[in-house]
Amino acid sequence: MMPYIIALVIGIVRRITDEDAAALIDLKEQGFVCRKSEQIVGGCGSPAVAVCSNGSIAVAFACTRVKEKALVSSICLMRSADPKQIATAGKRFVITSPLQIGNVTLTQTPQGLLLGWRTRSNAYLHYPSRLEKPVFNTLKSNNTALTMLLSEKEKQGGMHYALIPDNGEEIKEAYEAPALFSQSAAVLSGGEVLWLGVKDGKALAYRTQDVCKGFSLVGNVPEIETGRTYSHAGCAKLKNGRVLAVLCSSGELFASYSDDMGTRWTVPKPLDINGTAPSLAVREDGVVSLSFVEPDKKFAIRSSINKDGESEWCKVRLLVSSVGDNSRRPYTVAVGDSFCTVSRIRFCGEKESSVLYTGWKPLKEDYDPVLEAQLAKESKKKKRGRKNKDAVQ
């Protein structure tokens, strides 16, 4: 089934414009992690991915399903030793709530697999489009009844986190997160976990040695300019030990660095990239991937490469393009010498969204200094040749 899905998605999802034809990444495989089904009637989205301590890959995403005659939102977890086989992995629902679940994050830490998520009012819960009206009304009524059992604070929603049990059971105890986290935490050299989140428009850094005992505020990223706020923030540890943060403000991306595990940060500098929902991933050789949503009507997902996280960012390249104009929220992790990106997509005009997996490599000229210099030399040689030809004419 997977080869068919790959062929289908490559043939349709990768419909690109002539402008993008020379700006693609090296696509290795692409396919659906999950789509609407009898088990998941309302579709799925807000995906996150992590490489587990045993080398397997884990993908978590929010989905809408029917449970005990009520429409609920859940977080589904899937694991596979082979990223290309993730679509055939078993589904495990680790969180279930009558509220809407989104903003799912996933990080492998020394203490286990750290899951983050946000809950919002059940008024935001997606109701499946193809349910018959009497069935829909019953499910909606039962969902409302479940919501009434929650405390007033729980009904308001918020950001939460927990360690995923290895025994296959649902998460029994969750903790309130101090900010809105939209991407992975960074695991530092000493095993401490650094999480960069947004609260009241500010980018705040939290650190912990034991994720189940809480996160402590240790620093904040300076403002770009007075009054300007952040909407998304994420960070990653570079090969040399520095921490790189990429932040979004009004659809523009900025970079900041910390040399003391998140306590102090440099003043953010613009990357000259327009984008939202930035996601960072670092390969073992130090090559950094930045994936993000292009803020236009097509919602294309694009990527840029940095050979060490501190050099110039390379040309922005197309990662995922959807004919349904609904590619959103990329979440990227390094897998060996490649990268794996999961993203939400609404496929071929469907009202319910799906989760897409893209395995890819950056083009070598984007991070190999020898090849980069060679290509630059060849380019200059061609320009000189053209000038000489024009002079002769």
List the helices and strands and how they pair.
Blueprint: H1 2-12, E1 26-34, E2 44-51, E3 57-67, E4 70-80, E5 92-97, E6 100-109, E7 112-120, H2 133-148, H3 152-156, E8 158-163, E9 175-176, E10 186-187, E11 193-199, E12 202-208, E13 216-220, E14 232-237, E15 243-249, E16 252-258, E17 269-274, E18 276-282, E19 288-293, E20 301-306, E21 317-320, E22 328-335, E23 338-345, E24 354-361, H4 369-392
Antiparallel strand pairs: 1-24, 2-3, 3-4, 4-5, 6-7, 7-8, 8-9, 10-11, 11-12, 12-13, 14-15, 15-16, 16-17, 18-19, 19-20, 20-21, 22-23, 23-24
Give the key terms.
393 residues, mainly beta, 4-stranded antiparallel β-sheet, 4 helices, 24 strands, globular
Q: If you compute it from the alpha carbons, what radius of gyration comes out, rounded to the nearest whole angstrom?
A: 22 Å
Give the amount of beta strand, in percent: 35-45%
Structural class: mainly beta
Major sheet strand order? 1-24-23-22
Write down how many β-strands occur, each being a DSSP E stretch of 2 or more residues: 24
Describe the biggest sheet?
4 strands, antiparallel
| Poorly predicted sequence stretches spanning 5 or more consecutive residues | 1-22
Query: In oligomeric terms, what are we looking at?
Result: single chain
